[in-house]
């Protein structure tokens, strides 16, 4: 502690930094941006000296930073020294942080869903899952777009018009790319020329124009493993199963891309879930 004036005790920059566990460089920066000026600067040495009143502002600054305030926001709070200003800034910060939480939750959902797809595909490949099964699809909300289809799966899954469409309409999505064909027969015969591309909506923004709400639906499902060029064989397997078990198929069909060009360019690792609505035939 250093005495510069007889009745005023001042701390050197080193003493102030040590007391508050921050660096001298930080104190110099705070001086430069006007957040915390020293009380005295020696004309001979250029050394900075701080009063206890100013040193006590450093814990306040540190706590503001912990709460997520930027330095310019902290400057506003300290310089105005008003309870109203503090209240107003806290309300704004709480709103900002809540928006960040929502955004992080959306990002976590997207990453988690992609990770789950990789685990799903690994199970299908290692457990040799190759039989038709039946299940109910739960109600869901999707973003969707109608577009032309040319049987080029690389550009249908990594779909530039679709990505641009989502960005232009501020729609956040998660999970696998899904293609829905109005006619399973046309899909099998490769005469379908339009498709509905969709992905699960994750954003909290309300844009009902882009939303498609699906209802609970019974489907026959089969994982197609490998190149999409051979997917007809998997469709035929579903048809054979339906005939054997007395089910009507279609008319629609759905292809859900568990592992595709988004994750790998090796077609041997591709996993596509084919889903076909089914209904038990009446006797």
Give an overview of the whole structure.
The protein is α+β, with helices and mostly antiparallel strands and 283 residues long. The chain folds into two domains: 2-81, Multidrug-efflux Transporter Regulator, Chain: A, Domain 2, CATH 1.10.1660.10; 107-280, Regulatory factor, effector binding domain (Multidrug-efflux Transporter 1 Regulator Bmrr, Chain A). The protein is built from ten helices and 13 strands. It has helices at residues 13-20, 24-33, 52-55, 57-66, 71-80, 83-126, 153-157, 160-168, 184-189, 231-244; strands spanning 2-5, 8-12, 40-41, 48-51, 133-137, 140-148, 173-181, 194-201, 211-214, 217-225, 247-249, 253-259, 271-280. The strands form two sheets. Strands 5, 6, 7, 8, 9, 10, 11, 12 and 13 form a nine-stranded antiparallel β-sheet that branches. Strand 1 (2-5) and strand 2 form a beta hairpin. Mean pLDDT is 92; it is low at 1-6.
Strand and helix order: EEHHEEHHHHEEHHEHEEEHEEE
Residue fraction in strands: 25-35%
Could you list the spans in which at least 5 consecutive residues all have pLDDT below 50?
A: 1-6
Radius of gyration from CA coordinates: 31 Å
Spatial separation of the terminal alpha carbons: 98 Å
CATH-scheme architecture of the largest domain: Alpha-Beta Barrel
CATH first level of the largest domain: Alpha Beta
Strand elements, count:
13
Tell the overall outline.
Answer: elongated
What is the name of the CATH topology of the largest domain? Multidrug-efflux Transporter 1 Regulator Bmrr, Chain A
* Number of contiguous helices: 10
Helix coverage percent? 40-55%
* Biggest sheet overview: 9 strands, antiparallel
Average pLDDT works out at 92
Helix/strand structural class: alpha+beta
Subunit organisation of the chains = single chain
Specify the CATH homologous superfamily of the largest domain. Answer: Regulatory factor, effector binding domain
Integer tally of domains: 2
